[in-house]
Amino acid sequence: MTSHQNAQTMKPATAAKKLGVYLEATPAEFQEGVVSRAELTELQANPPAWLQELRENGPHPRPVVANKLGVSIAGLARGGITEPLTTEQIEAIKQELPEWLKKERTTQSEVRKETVRIKERNAERAEKARREQNA
Predict the structure, then answer these.
(1) Residue from 102, 52, 98, 104 nearest 76 by CA
(2) What integer pLDDT is reported at residue 1 of this predicted model?
(3) Measured over all CA atoms, what is the biggest interatomic distance in the chain, rounded to whole angstroms?
(4) Taking the model in full, what pTM does it have?
């Protein structure tokens, strides 16, 4: 008995997430089909015009919006941003620099510092345990 390999496929929502685009803004044929791993790789390597346009101008999904603004997704929600935004809208928020954005950027910076501190502490503990084990 021979086995043949089926191409792995994913739902359009998963593919859109991996591509960093807002699913509802993609073409209908993308939204209604399935995407194979090979197709995803091809889209990443040679993005068609519609994908280039979405990546450049949006609308962008919340993770991309959060990243472009330098805040967390939860920070976006606290700031009242719950819908996808275009690049133009994101730039307008950056120019306006509302109080919530300043606060969320500060929070995000503190979280990153704390993550680094914990990582360093854990590395020191692991090194100490390794030395004690070898002693």
Answers:
(1) 104
(2) 42
(3) 66
(4) 0.74
